[in-house]
Amino acid sequence: MSARDYDELPMRPGELSCVCGPSARGEDALEVRDLWRLAAGFGLAVLAQALVLSALPEASNGVAPAGRIGWPYALLLIGAALASFPAALLIDAFGRRSAFALGASLGVAGGLLSAWGVSHGVFGALCLGAFWLGLAQGFSLFYRHIAARGSSLAARGGLLVFAGGAAAAGGAPAVIGLAGAFGDGMAPLFVGAALLHVGALWLSTRLPHALVSAAPQSVVDAALSWRFGVATFAAALAWFLMSGGMFHGPLNLAHCAASRGFIGAAVSWHLLAMYGPAAVVARWPSILPPMGAIVGGLTIMSFAAVVLHAGASVASLSIALIAIGGGWSLVNIGAIRLLHEYGRPPRAALALHDLCLLGAAALGALT
């Protein structure tokens, strides 16, 4: 590279100009403290998700017109799906810090708008707030890909981010109880979710920008890989089953006269089952081969989904809700390892992967 490459203005004698290429700090620049920041940010997003999922079914039931109770939850998942490609493209254009800050900001706005909508009985505001919260969730889900691609740990970096979700899920009952102590109704839970996204916003400002040089990468080749196909199909099926269970499970628990605190605890244990196994596999990856994890996880989820839709009792619903979370975790562990342990797929392919997953989740919420 020479000074002629920067020839927008004529060079003048004595002028100092940088003729070096872009900073070499790229995807390999993630340090251990950056991985922990990603894990902590994802953990805050999971806590916000716990509050939203605890509040959204009952909030929808209270303000939605007949036949539209599932709309806010579906819009939450549609927002997450639509965030996949913007997250990848904005990371390329503006860096990690700016992209993830934007995602967290949408979570703050979505939580506050949802709180206002449920307080004033405005169904449209609740739907738009849920959509913005979904966009924030889509950005936070991309943390695992950035951790896997940006560190020497490969797939273990992505699993470490999932482990942050497990740590957060353990504290979810206390956070749900604290948010509920500030007032009756669902609005305090949405406000709590907004405050948690404020924390994720602050953590995102501590990440390196890490603008990446545009090395040629074939998205088509990555998408046609059998590993990419298996990982995407299996994980999409898992997200389809999980989203249906996550909508019908808390709602059926409410119909079975379970208390709000019990439903919040059941959702928290469900989230812990979703992310807890990742902490174990990140430490001992050899104990769970990818294909074995996928097959086992889908088997567990299939049985659990039948129980959740039957809605026989509070006990069976709670156990099935936890089981479907554990099965989802196994499938996603296998998918992450298939995607990242055998190469480095381009971010556009990873965005396509997430779009398929979250699109299947939105479809599952509507069935």
Automatic annotation (TrEMBL):
The keyword Transmembrane helix applies. Gene3D superfamilies: MFS general substrate transporter like domains. The chain crosses the membrane at residues 35-57, 69-91, 98-116, 122-143, 155-179, 185-203, 224-242, 262-281, 293-311, 317-336. InterPro entries: MFS_trans_sf. Keywords: Membrane, Transmembrane, Transmembrane helix. SUPFAM superfamilies: MFS general substrate transporter. This is MFS transporter.
